[in-house]
Design brief:
By secondary structure, this protein is α/β, with parallel strands linked by helices. It contains ten helices and ten strands. The chain has two domains: about 170 residues, 3-Layer(aba) Sandwich (Rossmann fold); about 80 residues, no CATH class. Helix 3 packs across helix 5 and helix 3 runs parallel beside helix 6. The chain is globular and about 60 Å long. The chain binds adenosine-5'-diphosphate and magnesium ion (MG). Magnesium ion binds next to helix 1.
């Protein structure tokens, strides 16, 4: 494979009634990069994620991936199919199975990637039992990597807030993605939890060979982690560059007027 970007978004627009929530946005990410998508509230960041992950079918534009398995256009594919192609995400508002255990939450993600049918699990063949044990082992291993192994049998709803957010990342990782999309992963975290998250994201990139696109409001996290930043405002891309370039960009400062971006 050449050095084509793993994710290539061209001229993407998403219109709701009269509102252009995403307006002609293009973005690309190279393998192994950590890229941030930032912008004021309502700028269209989550909608952009929703278009990439199949929650919405974009009104216009193309979402394309380039991997060792070749290139594929994602427009029109269902979220689970896009997930199987190696894109996994977390949500701005935590979405866990709160009355299931931590291990079970990750196992669900793992099952999704295995596509093992309901019928085979009903029949409980020997092959199926071996597969099930592997799902448990793999899920435990993911939890260990994410630093949640002490909570395996705890109900998700009993975890401290920061650990719940990490569990969402663990569940996304369980689907074995090459690209992880994080929607405000540090939202609501205390400074210690945010530091741990920065460490986790850097470690995932390094050890799991993963590429990361993250939406985040915590500017110090964004400036620390990202190699490149894209800035949207009112659906439009207003700037892109390195953290240093973005900090000094007049358009960006104007968009954030009143908000502190000098992290
Ligand atoms: N399903 C929807 N229907 C109508 N409007 C929507 C929908 N989803 C998002 N919007 C609107 O699109 C704009 C961008 O929202 P969003 O992508 O959530 O912004 P951000 O994540 O940057 O805060 C907002 O004005 C929001 O109200
Ligand atoms: Mg959002």
């Amino acid at each position: 494979m050449s050095d084509a970007p793993v994710l290539e978004v061209n001229d993407l627009s998403m219109v709701f009634g009269g509102l252009r929530a995403v307006d002609n946005v293009s973005l690309n990410i190279k393998k192994g990069e950590i890229v941030a998508l930032i912008g004021p509230n309502g700028a269209g960041k989550t909608t952009f994620f929703n278009c990439i992950t199949g929650v919405y079918i974009p009104t216009h534009g193309e979402v394309k991936i380039n991997t060792s398995e070749g290139s594929a256009v994602l427009n029109g594919l269902k979220p689970n199919v896009i997930n199987e192609k190696g894109l996994a995400r977390t949500f701005q508002n935590i979405r866990l199975f709160s009355n299931m255990t931590v291990l079970e939450n990750v196992m669900i993600g793992r099952h999704q990637s295995l596509k093992s049918g309901i019928l085979s699990s009903v029949l409980r063949t020997k092959k199926n039992r071996i597969e099930e044990q592997k799902v448990i082992d793999d899920s435990y291993e993911i939890l260990r990597k994410i630093g949640l192994e002490m909570y395996v049998n705890e109900l998700a709803c009993n975890l401290p807030y920061g650990a719940q957010r990490r569990l969402e990342i663990a569940r996304a990782m369980a689907t074995n993605p090459f690209l992880l999309l994080l929607d405000e992963p540090a939202a609501g975290m205390n400074p210690q939890e945010t530091n741990d998250l920065v460490e986790l994201i850097e470690r995932l990139r390094k050890e799991e060979d993963i590429t990361i696109l993250l939406i985040e409001h915590d500017m110090s996290l964004v400036m620390t982690l990202s190699e490149r930043i894209y800035v949207v405002d009112y659906g439009k891309m207003i700037a892109t560059g390195t953290p240093e370039e973005i900090k000094n960009n007049k358009e960006v400062i104007k968009a954030y007027l009143g908000e502190d971006i000098d992290a």
